[in-house]
Amino acid sequence: MSIESRSPQPTVLLTGFPGFLGSALVERLIDHGDGPIACLIQPAYRGRAEKRAQEITSDRDAIQLYEGDITRPELGLSDVLPELTAVSELYHLAAVYDLAVDPDIARAVNIRGTEHVLSVAAQLGVDRFHYVSTCYVSGRYDGVFTESHLKEGQQFNNYYEWSKYEAEVRVQEKMDDGFPATIYRPSIVVGDSKTGVTGKYDGPYYLIRLLLRQPRWCSVITKLPKSTAAELNVVPQDFVIDAIDALRSSADTCGNVYQLCDPHPLSVPEFVSTIATETGHRVIPAPTSKRTAKLVMSVLKRLQLPAEPATIDYLDHPTRYANPKTRPVLEDAGVMCPPFASYADRLLSFVIEQPTIQQEAIKTKP
């Protein structure tokens, strides 16, 4: 690997660029004058990464791109690690965000990849390690899941949840040994609350797009027996970035877990009703079993319609998320999660105006 000589040396290392959250976080760090920032990128995404870096700043030294891969020991950076000795903060966002991910890929990227990033962080002797996990390390925990929960004997909806759980276990084990880390657990991340912009249509976007493909006068949506009590906890991208930004800069937040969730989420029927109201669709709930709903989604997916069978598990998800330790800290910083209804119109406008967008799936082999 040929890497040109760089000056000055980076003080921040980040994985997950030019992904949706990673790009926004890099932009925020640059705005604060942090860096230079070394961004680990996969070779396949160099063109996109260069374009995104130029959009963020005209200073070519501010964002420095290093080709590598978190699935490889030393992130594939063994030849250039001496250039990163000045790194004092490491942000780990790279992961496979796919509810239908293959277990081998989930293990290679989300679990072993996190182990490799932790190893590099220790090798560099960073002062702070920032890890973006997910609320869904909860699996199908039956009850209220807070920052204090992790190992609860839970079952998981899919290999994505399982692999993120296993990855966070490894980070927390290091924290227990004194490793200087902070963990951020967003719930389901959707687009920017002000612009509606997103980088990928997944999660609740399947529901939104499937509804939009149907006639306004009659749009059929699956209703599971337990969906009335289930919550769909979504947070906008800008809230997640604001929260990480507020939490990262304080020494008091080191060694803690922060859950970035909506304290007042909508139930599944309320979420559907909000979408229906904003789009003018008359929704007809179709009571059915989970097994039948997944079969229908499989057929629709084969027909190239916006459907993913794995999303059905979230229509009767038994877990409710709370953040009693996180909310006071964020409120003191003036950061609050906006209610979904306050920005749903912007999300929908973006989907309508941009029916297809380039996906950000990580290309890798286990």
Write the layout of secondary structure elements.
Layout: E1 12-15, H1 20-31, E2 37-41, H2 46-56, E3 63-67, E4 89-92, H3 103-124, E5 128-132, E6 143-145, H4 159-176, E7 181-186, E8 188-190, H5 204-212, E9 219-223, E10 231-232, E11 234-236, H6 237-248, E12 257-260, E13 266-267, H7 268-279, E14 283-287, H8 290-302, E15 319-321, H9 326-332, H10 344-353
Parallel strand pairs: 1-2, 1-4, 2-3, 4-5, 5-7, 6-15, 7-12, 8-11, 9-14
Antiparallel strand pairs: 10-13
Helix pairs in contact: 1-6, 3-4, 5-7
Overview of this protein structure:
This protein is of the alpha/beta class. The chain has two domains: 12-189 and 234-260, NAD(P)-binding Rossmann-like Domain (Rossmann fold, 3-Layer(aba) Sandwich); 193-232 and 265-318 and 339-353, no CATH class. Helix content is 34%, strand content 16%. The protein has helices spanning 20-31, 46-56, 103-124, 159-176, 204-212, 237-248, 268-279, 290-302, 326-332, 344-353; strands at 12-15, 37-41, 63-67, 89-92, 128-132, 143-145, 181-186, 188-190, 219-223, 231-232, 234-236, 257-260, 266-267, 283-287, 319-321. The strands form five sheets. It has a seven-stranded parallel sheet with strand order 3-2-1-4-5-7-12, with helices on both faces. β2 (37-41), α2 (46-56) and β3 (63-67) form a beta-alpha-beta unit. The two termini are 21 Å apart. Mean pLDDT is 94; it is low at 359-366. It holds the Pfam family NAD_binding_4.
